[in-house]
Amino acid sequence: MNLEQELKSALRRQDPSPDFAERVLARVAAAPLRTAPRVSQVWVRWLAAIAAALLLAAGGLEYRHYRGERAKAQVLLAVRIAGSKLNKAQRKVHMLAHRSNS
Amino acid sequence: MDFASLVRQHQAMVFSIAWHMLRDRAVAEELAQDVFLSLHQHLAELESPEHIQFWLRRVTSNRALDVVRRRQRRPMVSLENAPEPVALTPTGDPLLGTALKKLVAALPEKSRAIVVLRYQEDLDPAEIARVLGIPVGTVKSQLQRALALLREKLSRSLGELGI
Hints:
Chain A has 102 residues and is mainly α.
């Protein structure tokens, strides 16, 4: 017995049911159409993605600028407070010196 | 070529791969229909009749392998434990063919796919490797092992019958 020959014979192709092709075509007709996106749709998606990226970048820059300004204002306020305290201290020193002289 | 002609041209190939892998006509037909439905959706990506045939073989084999693996979660009889086919005669007996189909269906799923593609589709090991996406060496070794197992099972059956 030639096993390989017997396998070829046993595993030869067989036809499905006679109405197989019709059933496939009916399913194809009933299936929702899956179309490839049009070129314009692809462009719109790219533009939207680029716009979103630009917006994020601009927002990031604006936020950095805002934080810088805030820090600057805080430093100026601190300098101003320190200045006024120094003036006060200086006035007190002058007053004490004046009293001790007189 | 229109889609209906494509279905008619390849339906025996697709159905038979599924049928020889699954040994269940209804499931094989359902799987074959799904494959053609998928072909319809991917037709624009396929460049030539050869590409379509290759794609059909690959998708059918892979889907049939998936079904076999899903079934294996349920208890199954392995080839070693499968009952011996009865009433075999050396050649020309349709029962021998039936017994061989049953033995092939009891092979491990990958070996089964390799045997089906080798003897149903007459593909060489390199082509089988491309269809299944595995190394040629694996195809050759699994094919040899499957043939040895089938030969042993069949000769045991024939011996028991005194043929």
